[in-house]
Design brief:
alpha/beta; 8 helices; Spore Coat Polysaccharide Biosynthesis Protein SpsA, Chain A; disordered C terminus
Length: 243
């Protein structure tokens, strides 16, 4: 795309060791393709220097925006805050833990010209056996309950049109947010394509995805979505969501 208009949304929780290099890598790549960008970082109640590092970088580059949570509200809540702050035509989601190479966004941008969503899948995935097993089971469960949704539903490497968010309201505050967004987008007829994304071992910090409370919340929100999906879609089809 010629000079894409793009918002990068980076959720982060206690990622002081890598958040600075993650942001700088994103800025470096974006500056090579466009001047119409912003990097929105949501420090989700981090107890380390994550928020301070983001705010220091935003003083140097005002296109780096800090939109923090004072307390930890969950992965989905962090993404929702980032989505609400996004103002460009395209939204690119990745995590602040440096397990992806933002330069691979270059492979996604041509695909968005004929789609509304480009969804990454990690290949190969650099996580431990427990996370791999849980991810397989999660993908199977969501695709069984709702029909085919994506090969790697929770992959944190997604590019989509901002206009999708003007129509679809996501309610999840936990890990179900990716499933909810993709399920609603597919049912509403948005064009979705999938593309490989390189995945790297975590260099620092700790993943929260394997915590029992996070898993339990994910199942609760998935059950709620299954029970309320039709009324959610009816509300969506009634018109654009209220600001």
């Amino acid at each position: 795309m010629n000079q894409p208009s793009i918002s990068v949304v980076l959720p982060a929780f206690n990622e002081e060791a890598v958040i600075g290099t993650t942001i700088l890598a994103a800025v470096d790549f974006l500056q090579s393709i466009t001047s119409n960008y912003e990097v929105i970082v949501v420090s989700d109640g981090s107890r380390d220097r994550t928020r301070a590092i983001v705010e220091e970088l935003s003083k140097v580059n005002p296109l780096v925006r800090s939109v923090p949570h004072e307390r930890n509200r969950g992965y989905g809540a962090a993404l929702r805050t980032g989505f609400e702050a996004a103002s460009r035509e395209l939204v690119f989601l990745t995590d602040g833990d440096k397990q992806f190479d933002v330069r691979e966004l270059a492979h996604f941008l041509p695909l968005i010209e004929r789609a509304d969503f480009v969804v990454g899948f990690r290949d190969p995935r650099r996580d431990g056996p427990g996370r791999l097993l849980f991810s397989w089971g999660w993908n199977w469960l969501v695709n069984t309950l709702f029909g085919y949704t994506a090969r790697d539903i929770n992959c944190a490497f997604k590019l989509f049109r901002r206009s999708v968010l003007d129509r679809i309201q996501v309610r999840a505050t936990g890990a179900v947010i990716s499933a909810e967004l993709l399920i609603k987008a597919r049912i509403l007829g948005y064009r979705i394509v999938e593309h490989r994304a390189s995945h790297f071992p975590r260099q620092a910090g700790r993943s929260t995805g394997g915590r029992l409370d996070v898993i339990a919340k994910a199942f609760r929100e998935l059950i709620w979505l299954r029970l309320h999906l039709h009324e959610e879609l009816a509300r969506t089809q009634a018109g654009p969501r209220a600001p």
